[in-house]
Design brief:
Layout: H1 4-14, H2 21-33, H3 35-47, E1 51-53, E2 60-62, H4 73-76, E3 84-88, H5 91-100, E4 106-109, H6 125-134, E5 140-144, H7 149-163, E6 173-176, H8 192-200
Helix pairs in contact: 1-2, 5-8
This protein binds zinc ion.
Zinc ion binds near residues 59, 71 and 74.
């Protein structure tokens, strides 16, 4: 019988995505044998507590304990275009679009992949509608969903949700990333050239 701290460590690691029971146990032993890894893990686990969501776009940001402002550098940047909002599913998509440098507007992070199996209530659909309702500068919402069958269905559904929210939101132009994105490809893995093209060709 393995000592319970090893089993308990393996049980936690097993909960991580893509990790099976055997791998989890191997990781637990690795952690046990490596004091330096244990030390680093303790440090980052403490630090990760100070990662919060930006109160405007909901992307993850690292806040210092006495930060007065819980907004991110993009939302605070007065140089950026206030009329267009790019809706991404996850933080990695936003990072990828920023790296491509083709978009100078605002962002909104839904917080998960839109799919037919996903309960939309788990995503920030209501928060997005609120943003569309309250943000009077908003003229265009660009949906940056991956061009998969599910992404297409999700786009049409989300577009309807926003347009039907109020008379004001009905005036907002709602587009999505255009051709250029490989069909079935994901934004997370798209190169910068492709993303710039997809933004230019939004429709
Ligand atoms: Zn922000």
């Amino acid at each position: 019988m393995l000592p319970s701290p090893i089993r308990e460590t393996a049980d936690i690691i097993k909960k991580l995505p893509g990790i099976g029971p055997r791998q989890a146990l191997r990781c637990a032993f690795y952690i046990l044998r490596n004091p330096a890894i244990r030390q680093d893990l303790k440090l980052v686990l403490d630090k990760i507590e100070s990662v919060k969501n930006c109160s405007i776009c909901f992307r993850y940001i690292h806040l210092s304990p006495n930060a007065a402002d819980s907004t991110c550098s993009i939302c605070r940047d007065i140089e950026r275009d206030k009329n267009s909002l790019c809706v991404v599913e996850e933080d990695v998509d936003l990072e990828q679009l920023e790296k491509a440098g083709a978009f100078g507007g605002q962002y909104f992070v839904l917080g998960g992949r839109l799919s037919l199996n996903q309960d939309p209530r788990a995503l920030r659909i209501n928060e997005l509608k609120q943003r569309a309702l309250k943000d009077k500068d908003l003229k265009e919402i660009i949906m940056a969903m991956s061009p998969t069958a599910e992404g297409n269905a999700a786009f049409l559904w989300l577009k309807q949700e926003i347009l039907s929210a109020s008379d004001n939101t009905a005036q907002i132009k709602i587009t999505r990333l255009g051709i250029g994105m490989p069909s079935g490809g994901e934004i997370e893995y798209a190169d910068e050239e492709t993303l710039r093209g997809a933004l230019e060709n939004r429709n």
